[in-house]
Amino acid sequence: AQSVTQLDSHVSVSEGTPVLLRCNYSSSYSPSLFWYVQHPNKGLQLLLKYTSAATLVKGINGFEAEFKKSETSFHLTKPSAHMSDAAEYFCVVSPASYKLIFGSGTRLLVRP
Amino acid sequence: NAGVTQTPKFQVLKTGQSMTLQCAQDMNHNSMYWYRQDPGMGLRLIYYSASEGTTDKGEVPNGYNVSRLNKREFSLRLESAAPSQTSVYFCASSGRTGGEGQPQHFGDGTRLSIL
Predict the structure, then answer these.
(1) Which of A41, B3, B89, B97 has a CA between 20 and 30 Å from the CA of residue B9?
(2) pLDDT at site B100
(3) Is B60 near chain A, with CB under 8 Å?
(4) Nearest residue on chain A to B30, judged by CA atoms?
């Protein structure tokens, strides 16, 4: 069975410092993986997706994620946090079907 | 470019009342989905429609019904609302069901409280 674990429920960084949001997945085969962001009172917006073409995936707003099969990880990073990055982030795994399996989310707080 | 539009944005119901949440997409997507979001639980799939004319249960379908009215519209109905159905409901769509790398596009949600 496929599953996804977000290792931190909350992450706090200072503006201008790097962001690391951690995600581990469990899958019996190479999955499709996504990161979504949710700002308050908004729907989920796709940040980036991994679909086996390249292990380092670049997304919107300066975010990127690296797929590491040996570690079953798909961590999200950004070199320099901005105040507008404060939101909740979801790591999502998709088997080859309709299904999206969501992590429980990581809330990112950016301090001035 | 509206994407996925949900109505209403907010609703308060009394236990036992019924209501229908509406969703429409303008991206010519084949597949549509209804989720609920509860604190600390991510999103859970209620129902989905792989294509016009078909609907299937997701992870938490009890207490809900759906209708795929046409390719654009997918509604979610609560026949007899219960306090446990207090949640934020999201509609989503994707180009097709299945296959590699099919992201879903989400509406802004309906915040539903049941007293």
Answers:
(1) B97
(2) 53
(3) no
(4) A98
Contact A78, A69 (CB under 8 A): no
Q: Among A34, A32, A10, A33, which Cα is nearest to A21's?
A: A10
Distance CA(A108)–CA(A5), nearest Å, equals 16
Specify whether the CB–CB gap between A93 and A35 falls below 8 A: no
Q: B51 to chain A, minimum CA–CA distance in Å?
A: 11
Contact between B104 and B33 under an 8 Å Cβ cutoff? The reply is yes
pLDDT at B31 over 80: yes
Query: Is the CB of B42 less than 8 angstroms away from the CB of A98?
Result: no
Answer whether A105 sits within 8 Å of B107, measured CB to CB.
no
Of residues A61, A67, A103, the one with CA closest to residue A81? A61
Percent of chain B with pLDDT over 70: 94
**A:B CB pairs within 8 Å:** 58
Q: What is the pLDDT of residues A8-57, one digit of tens each?
A: 999 999 999 999 999 999 877 777 899 999 998 888 999 999 877 788 99
Structural contact between residues B42 and A4, judged by C-beta atoms closer than 8 angstroms: no
> Does residue B37 have a pLDDT over 90?
yes
pLDDT attached to residue B24? 97
Is B100 close to A41, i.e. CB distance below 8 A? no
- Is residue A38 within 8 Å of residue A92, measured between CB atoms? no
**Beta strand spans in chain B (E):** 4-7, 10-13, 19-25, 31-37, 43-49, 56-57, 64-68, 74-78, 87-94, 105-106, 110-114
